[in-house]
Amino acid sequence: MKSIGRCRAHTNIALIKYWGKRNEELFLPMNSSLSLTLDAFYTDTEVTLDSTLDSDVFFLDNVKQGDKETAKITNFLNLFRNRANIETKACIKSYNHVPTAAGLASSASAFSALAGATNQATGLNLDLKTLSTLARQGSGSATRSIYGGFVEWFMGESDLSESSFAIPVDDATWDIGMIVIAVNTGRKKLSSRVGMKQTIDTSPFYSSWVETATKDIEKIKKAISEKDFITLGEITESNGMKMHATMLGAFPPISYWEPDSVKAIQKVKEIRDMGLPCYVTMDAGPNVKVLCKRSDMIEIENKLLEDFTRDQIIPSSVGEGIKLLS
Length: 326
Ligand code: 2P0
Hints:
By secondary structure, the protein is α+β, with helices and mostly antiparallel strands. Helix content is 36%, strand content 25%.
């Protein structure tokens, strides 16, 4: 007996960041976060439950994955199998659609697409809120990729898994875009998971980070509701910098930056000083993301091309939430 599910999920970039778990097993975050889903980067995943299989098999971009990678997927599928009261093993085929230069292969789109495909294959018919709660337990940021546009991930209460999920805040169809400046696309040396824990355990700035991120969420939601792009950008840039400052305070210090990250940040500031509103944010890697108005994107790209190559500049409009594929 075979049963198939297919789903697409886009990646998301946090404007108010998630950087630390209060419960590592359940992926419960220290603070709420808020993101923008991007159209240009996505994962397509097919899950086939197959009663003839003895164990799960996982292919990423047509390459069969080893025991360690497959075990992560198995643990995640078990969340669904337990609910459906089945033990059937699965063949999982995932395809990352990320421009090769972007270096943005993302666990957010991966676990969100896997949640959607497994929901269909198991016939569980879970609602999006429940899928967001489950996607979180594959990778924290995946909880937000269930939805398109601006998305808030609630930190939830104490150790209650069901209380921490994402909701759509705004479809972001009001002149919003993002440009990725790909600085270095190699694999990062320190995973987010390890970096987060090291920051919580050793950075003296951590409690202030959580306090100010919580205030930033309220401010950015107000800016979104008022379609106030300048305030949106200012809070985004400030919050990202605060996250990186908090990491620098860790022992040993954590920095994902490279010389070209600084060059990109300075270039964006120069473009902004010329009168084009645009703001940077960075994640657990050296690449720089530029939040801008969609209508200004070509002009900003042209300015960035003065200092970076064409394949380093990847524009994206706003992405949608998960969708089933035929
Ligand atoms: C974010 N990042 O909010 C933050 C900002 C990176 C910097 O979520 O351990 O892959 O799987 O929950 O989601 C990257 O971390 O970490 C991330 P896990 P995840 O987007």
